[in-house]
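Lab notebook page, bench 4
Experiment: in silico fold of construct C2
Operator: M.H.
Input chain length: 275 residues
Purpose: comparison with the prior construct
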Amino acid sequence: MLVWLAVMLISAALAWVLTVWTQDLGTILLVTFVAVSALSLLAVHLISRRMTQPLHEMTEVARKLALGQFDRQTEIRTEDEVADLGRALNVMAAALHARMADISEDRARLQAVLSSMVEGVLVLDRHGRILLMNEAMRRMFPLADSVVIGRSFIEVFRHHRLNELVKTVLESGQGCREEVVLLMPEEHTFSIQASVAKQGSEPDVAAVFVFHDITELKRLERVRKDFVANVSHELKTPLTSITGYVEALIDGAKDDPDKCAQFLGIIQKHSEGLN
C-alpha cells in the first residue's frame, strides 16, 4: 500500500512539473520537494522491508520451535548482523532437534526396561508425590486404570506400614531394605529396596522404591521348614529306639540268646521303616 502511494505521488509530481514548467519557480520547487519526499518514503519502505522480513521469518521459526517443530530453518539472504542472528537460530534449532531426539531415545529405552521388569518400581519426589510407576507396580496393587502420576503416595497406597516406611526414607534421606506384609485383601509379602537420589541427579527425584513380591517364596520356605520338621521327627523316633537296643546289646543283652534275637529283630524292623 505504501509503495503504491509513493508511486502515485511521484507520478502526480512529474505531471505537475510538466504543466507548470514555465510557470512559477516556487511552485516547481514545491513539486520537486514533494517528489523527493515520495522517493525518500519509497526508499525507506524498501529498506525497512528488507530488514524486517528476515526478522518476521525468524520470529515464525522461533514460534515453530516453541511448538516442537525443530526441523524448521531460517533462510539466509544477506551477509549482515541479521544473517548472523538467523544462522545462530538455525544452529540452535539443529541442537534442540538432536537433543530432543536423544531424550526421546533415552525415554524409550527406560520405558522398555521398566515394562520388562517383574519388580515394581516407584519413583517419588521430595514431597511424596508419584513421578513414575511401572506396569508391574500397577499390577501388584491393582492400579491399572488409576491416574496416579502427580498424586501423593498416601492417597494411592492406603497401607499404614508402607506409608510409614516411605515417610521414614524421605525424612531421613537414608536408603533401606525391608520386608513388609500387606493385606490387599489377601496377605502378600514384599521385599522393598529403597534408594535415595544422589546429589546431582534429577532435582525432582527424592527416592526410588523397588518392590519384589516374595509371597510365593515365603510359602515355599514354610513348606520346606514343615517338611524338614516332619522328616526330622520321623527319623528321630526309630533312631532313638535303635540306639537304645544297640546300647542294651552292648551292655550284656547279647549274651542272652532270646533277648539278643528279640532286640535284633526290633532293630531290623526300625531299620526297614527308616529305609
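Observations: The first strand starts at residue 120 and ends at 125. DSSP finds eight helices and five strands in the chain.
Next step: discuss at group meeting.
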